[in-house]
Amino acid sequence: MKTSLLFSLLYFLFSNSSSAQGNSLLWRISGNNLPQDSYIYGTMHSSDPRVFHFADSVLPAFEMCDAFAMEVVIDESVQSTLLQGIFMNGETTLKSLLTDNQYDSVQWFAMKNAGLSISYFERMKPLYVAMMLEMMSGEDSIIANADPFLDQYFENSAKDQQKKIIGLETAQEQMSIFDVMTYKDQAQLLMKSVREYSTDTTEFEEMINDYLGNDLNQMMKFENDLSIPDSLYDALITQRNIKMAHRIDSLVHLHSTFVAVGAGHLGGDGGLVSLLRAKGYTVIPVIPSFKNYLDDGWYRFHSKKNNLVVDFPEHPQLKIDQNENHYAAEIKSDNGKKESFSLTIIPVTDHKKIQSLVSADKKNFTLDDSGNNFTCQDNDGNKIAGKIFYSSTSAFILTDQSKQKPKYSDRFFQSFAILAE
Question: Which among 119, 126, 234, 235 has most CB atoms closer than 10 A?
Answer without folding.
Answer: 126
